[in-house]
Amino acid sequence: MDKSQIVHLRENNTIQEFKNTGKFEINDEIKKVYDDEGVFCVRNLFSKEEIDHILKGITETDLITSRAWDLADGEGRASRLVIWSHPGNDVTGMVARSRRLVESSERLLGGEVYHYHSKLMMKEPHTGGKHLWHQDYGYWYKNGMLRPDVLTVFIALDVCNKTNGGLQVVPGTHKAGRIEHDLLHGQTVANYDRVNALCEHYGGVVYADLQPGDALFFHSNVLHTSDKNDSDLRRWCLLLSYNRADNDPIYKHHHPNYTQLKMVEDSEILSCQNFTDMSGKEFMDPAGDKTVNISLKKSGFH
Questions:
Q1: Which terminus of the chain is more solvent-facing, meaning fewer CB atoms within 10 Å of its CB: N or C?
Q2: What average pLDDT score do residues 52-66 get?
């Protein structure tokens, strides 16, 4: 068996979840779950109308998807990624700057935040590759970030579950701190012996089962992975990462240092009709990222 395959499953196999019934806010109960588990799910954080509008903003032109590049998994497959540094003023920028995400992130992290980067992850049917076990801080520590005071909001644009390479997490592992990571198959990957031990210690792996519009909030030290997509279903998701303003990385690198975030009202997501102006987003050239290794000839980045 491939030692990267963790088989110890959590008995209840669930992530604690909350329902967005209107204006979503982080209350004391949600904050405690985040502090204890490092991850939680919000059902219907974005409405169907909002998700359709976000997808239109991504697919109306190829201005975003044409920047995609391959991240190999060592098994002949790859995930397709597009990463940008600043929100910009298009629809995806309105999502990143929306009050529901910015204020939620500030409440969870305990202070002002800025947009560290956004990422569109695309796993196409029968071809999408694995994203190997890691902590996000395993990458970001190497970028000069001194503390793990950063989180990611994972927004499902499609159905994302066990059948199509959905996310797997080990709740509670953020309490273990950062573990060692090495470059493997083009990805920065957590030490598998430690992953297995932590998985058993913290009760096992949980598969996220998400519908379009559902979102996961997770701490940068939570161990997670995603499998290859052998299904007939596309798996696209939008990830927004927020760093505390006083956790400015000490190195200049491919993600931005502190840049004041101009928050907008949630209504701006649907009212935004900008599908073509991508100025200011600063799409990442993967050749400048020391934490990944790709073949530019196979990359769609240009």
A1: N
A2: 97
Sorted by where each begins, the domain ranges of the chain are 17-288
Q: What is the DSSP letter of 46?
A: S
> Could you tell me the pLDDT band of residue 3, with boundaries at 50, 70 and 90?
very low
H-assigned helices in 78-207: 91-97, 99-109, 136-140, 192-201
Q: Comparing C-alpha atoms, which of 238, 255, 294, 289 is closest to residue 57?
A: 238
| 3-class secondary-structure state, position 167 | strand
Domain 17-288 is found in CATH 1.10.10.10? no
The C-alpha atoms of residue 283 and residue 70 are separated, in whole angstroms, by 15
Is-contact 256 85, C-beta < 8 A? yes
Q: Give the distance, in angstroms, between the CA of residue 235 and the centroid of all CA atoms in the same chain.
A: 13
Q: Do residues 164 and 121 make contact, with C-beta atoms less than 8 angstroms apart? A: no
Phi then psi for 257, rounded to 5 degrees? Answer: -75, 180
Cα distance between residue 88 and residue 109, in whole Å: 23
